[in-house]
Recover the amino acids of this structure.
């Protein structure tokens, strides 16, 4: 089977940063599905791992943590899927990724793909949907469909996770949603997704919220550059508020939250698959819920750019765009 992989961690400009290879087709066992990949999307985690983690000696590392495809074979313990089903998923960090024609993935982190989107449109959503959902409803415990007059601030709303978080908040909660963006096109993007207010994250955030005359946000969800905004967040968040982040600041001194008794939450969507938690199947259930919301017209794809085919050249282009920090929505690749 065709795949795109690498052996040595390094900069995307390196000749062997990503290369086209041929691999043996793996065998489905246990809870595994063997999926023929139709479309994938690229996430910041792809670039982070490529920069820092080499393959094991004389082996290849295949990246990719978003895919839509067709089930070609199933393991003996599979109960939720049949051969021929179209599925979507974000995979697991400790297994080979989706940048290959065929991929093994545990059925407990796989959902049935939405029927109203094509494979490329759907591939933009799994990882960001899981991350946003788990942060909002599992970590921050944001109340769904209540009339509570509460505000949430989403920092980096135009990125993949932010784009999903805004949509989930508008469809499943009554919260006032404030998003940040820094360019006219990204400001317009988050407004289209449902943000009630937009702040410029190149400027101090607390004064901007005060100027709007809004209540201090009870929830703050930071998707990027948390270290640059931490002092601002501590100033603007409500007393006894809830703060969550998904990026990787080199240092995170949370003592500044003590006087307000702010709870701090870190979301990592690979935790369930990495540690084989007892509730691992919740990611399958979550993806099925997202698919239903998509098919009901309540959630739209966040794809902003499509490339074809899936090969080393196009994946390098996608990685460079991701590393520029200017991506709006998601970059999708389709077809081998």
């Amino acid at each position: 089977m065709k795949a795109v992989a690498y052996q040595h961690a390094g900069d995307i400009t390196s000749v062997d940063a990503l290369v086209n290879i041929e691999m043996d087709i793996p065998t489905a066992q246990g809870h595994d599905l063997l999926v023929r990949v139709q479309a994938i999307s690229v996430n910041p985690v792809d670039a982070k791992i490529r920069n820092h983690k080499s393959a094991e000696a004389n082996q290849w590392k295949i990246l990719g943590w978003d895919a839509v495809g067709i089930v070609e074979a199933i393991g003996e313990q599979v109960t939720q899927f049949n051969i021929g089903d179209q599925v979507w998923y974000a995979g697991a960090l400790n297994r080979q990724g989706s940048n290959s024609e065929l991929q093994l993935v545990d059925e407990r982190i796989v959902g049935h793909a939405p029927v109203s989107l094509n494979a490329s449109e759907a591939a933009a959503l799994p990882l960001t949907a899981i991350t946003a959902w788990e942060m909002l409803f599992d970590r921050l415990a944001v109340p769904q469909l209540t009339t509570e007059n509460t505000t949430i601030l989403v920092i980096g709303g135009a990125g993949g996770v932010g784009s999903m978080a805004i949509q989930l908040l508008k469809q499943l909660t009554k919260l006032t949603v404030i998003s940040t963006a820094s360019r006219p096109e990204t400001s317009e993007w988050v407004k289209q997704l449902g943000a009630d207010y937009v702040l410029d994250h190149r400027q101090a955030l607390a004064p901007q919220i005060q100027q709007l005359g809004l209540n201090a946000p009870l929830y703050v969800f930071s998707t990027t550059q948390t270290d640059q905004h931490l002092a601002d967040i501590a100033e603007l968040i409500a007393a006894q508020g809830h703060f969550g982040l998904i990026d990787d600041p080199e240092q995170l001194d949370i003592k500044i939250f003590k006087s307000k008794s702010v709870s701090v939450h870190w979301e990592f969507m690979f935790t369930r698959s990495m540690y084989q938690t007892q509730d691992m199947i919740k990611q399958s259930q979550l993806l099925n819920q997202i698919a239903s919301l998509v098919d009901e017209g309540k959630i739209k794809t966040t794809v902003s750019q499509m490339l074809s085919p899936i090969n080393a050249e196009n994946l390098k282009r996608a990685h460079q765009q991701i590393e520029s920090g200017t991506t709006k929505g998601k970059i999708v690749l389709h077809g081998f």
Summary: DSSP finds ten helices and 15 strands in the chain.
